[in-house]
Write a structure and sequence with these properties.
With 239 residues, this protein is α+β, with helices and mostly antiparallel strands. It has 7 helices and 7 strands.
Length: 239
């Protein structure tokens, strides 16, 4: 699953403009720990429905096509066949949704147990790594991290954990977070930013493409049952 979940859009409403002015982008502090974990978890919980929209349609079409044959068979023999098939369809869709739910929560728990377990060590211990939060009315409503470790090539850093609270979306917060991250990356003399997201996170993909990130690699999701889901790797050359 993706580590850079975000859904954001422009808004011309006066309320949104007032809120954006009052949003403060600043460096992460130890007191932000619980707020960051909450914002990340809240944002990633919505990934469940996004993944379902990508994965389930194919199975719906397959079941619908088989349903035509089953209906003909039921007409020729007994309508109990159709009743059994209907039950089977409900069971299959429930099974698929539960699998999606489990996979999403595996990713969430993995993140909470690794870099988001010790944010200070992962993002605030030097080497150019850093984390920023968006603060509004004294609460953390957004976050994004830049990480530089041995898994990256020289002068390449990774964008991670982009998330904006559901109550503060469509306010341009993601743009402000990206502005801060990119400026920091340039100041640290990084030449390129990379990130990984999933094909289910369409709003996030649109945001990154609009920002200038280019698709550099596509990988299938390792579990066959979620075969229509893909990992998308993006890169941005810093000038």
């Amino acid at each position: 699953m993706s580590s850079s979940k975000v859904i954001v859009a422009k808004s011309n409403s006066p309320l949104a403009k007032i809120k954006v002015v009052n949003v403060k982008i600043r460096s992460y502090q130890s007191s932000d720990y619980d707020g960051c974990r909450k914002v990340f978890t809240e944002g990633m919980e919505q990934l469940i429905s996004l993944v379902a929209r990508v994965v389930l349609p194919k199975y719906c079409w397959i079941l619908a096509a088989l349903g035509v044959l089953v209906s003909l068979a039921a007409f020729m023999w007994t309508f109990w066949i159709l009743a059994f098939y209907t039950f089977l369809c409900v069971f299959m869709m429930a099974f698929l949704y539960v699998n999606i739910y489990i996979e999403c929560w595996k990713f969430i728990n993995s993140c909470l147990a690794t870099d988001l377990k010790d944010i200070e060590k992962t993002y605030m211990s030097g080497n150019g790594s850093h984390m920023w939060v968006a603060e509004w009315e004294g609460k953390v409503v957004g976050m994004v991290g830049l990480v530089n470790n041995c898994s990256h090539k020289p002068r390449v850093a990774g964008l991670q954990r982009m998330s904006v609270s559901t109550v503060c979306r469509r306010m341009g917060i993601a743009k402000k977070l990206l502005d801060e991250l990119c400026q920091h990356a340039k100041d640290q003399r990084f030449g390129k930013l990379v990130l990984t997201t999933t094909s289910a996170q369409i709003p996030a993909v649109r945001l990154y493409k609009k920002w200038g990130f280019n698709l550099i690699a596509v990988f299938p999701y390792p579990r066959m049952i979620l075969g229509d889901l893909q990992y998308l790797c993006f890169g941005l050359e810093l000038k």
